[in-house]
Amino acid sequence: MNTKHPNLYFILFIGTSLFFLLGISWQWSLTNFAQEDYVLVETMEQVSQKDLIIKQNKPQKREVKGIYLTAYSAGSAKKIDSIIDLIESTELNAIIIDIKDYSGFVLYDSNVELVDELGLDTGRIKDVAELIEKLHEHDIYVIARQTVFQDPILAGRKTEFAIKSKAGGLWRDRNGLAWVDPTNKEVWNYNVEIAKEAIGFGFDEINFDYVRFPSDGNMSLIAYTNGNKPKYEVMHDFYHHLNIELSDEPAYISLDLFGFVMERHDGMNIGQRLEDSIDEVDYISPMMYPSHYPSGHLGLANPAANPAIVIDNGMQKGMPYFTSSTKAQVRPWLQAFNMGAVYDGSMIRAQIDMVEKYSDGGWLLWNASNRYTSAGLKIE
User: Fold this and answer.
1) Per-residue pLDDT tens for 145-175?
2) Predicted TM-score (pTM) of this structure
3) CATH number of the domain at 57-366, out of 3.30.428.10, 3.30.420.40, 2.40.50.320, 3.20.20.80?
């Protein structure tokens, strides 16, 4: 026994016990924390050191009212600040940001293997996680827009993935853009990998665009590989693949479809039908721009000049496909650009009112130049 310090062993015993109990308490805290919406990250090379947590659950559903931004706009701090100001002063609550656009380039510094191998990223958005964190601080719902089968850069650098021409080489649409083959499951998986990486940065939703076969150009020269399988069956299989691969991810999934899917159910020769998509994803976003309906539609010489009539008709005909038993809600893209008519506040509001007459799934405003004002929006 230590005669100089008779209480030494007792002190050591108490100290060791306290240390052990603190360790158990700390471990329990981490376990309990992980059961909530977020979990600590020990190592993540592609995320900066300050990003100590990542989202584990999908955000609470809301009536999304969003505007579209290119990666150029999203990469501009000045532009983002102005958009945040607009959102905070109006009913808007969401932003849709390009992460893979019509060019096929991935617009941030990606670690997806094929992207790195072929040099398919641009780093246009410097720090995606930081951008999303900033937007979340303002309670803004953040959607990543990702084009799929119109992908000229991938088609050119991985020609075995491309749609071929009967005349030889790659088939191209009327704009000279090559497409990847919608039947190719390696293309499916490539896009799933990009989506998962984007979700890892904190996006609340992935919005897939160009989820279809080509619609223009010399279609007779396309050498399809889907045999006699209808195009809409191919697209259904792709939507189902997204459902299987992404259903456990902490983000919602949406599809951009032609506006006519709300009225037509023949696939439109591009493979898009509501009935093939409504049970596979969370949101369907038909592009219901009145300027994109042909002259004579609904007896209108200029549908663009009659947004309320066009949107009302589409919503009325399409809504029966969205029921309490289907997975998806409808959330249309609406026109916020001048084409066929000047789209002032009254024209924008007319579209919004017609959507909200039928659905609380929300709406998205498209302006390719990203010029938005409060015109047509409710001020808050």
Assistant:
1) 999 999 999 999 999 999 999 999 999 999 9
2) 0.86
3) 3.20.20.80
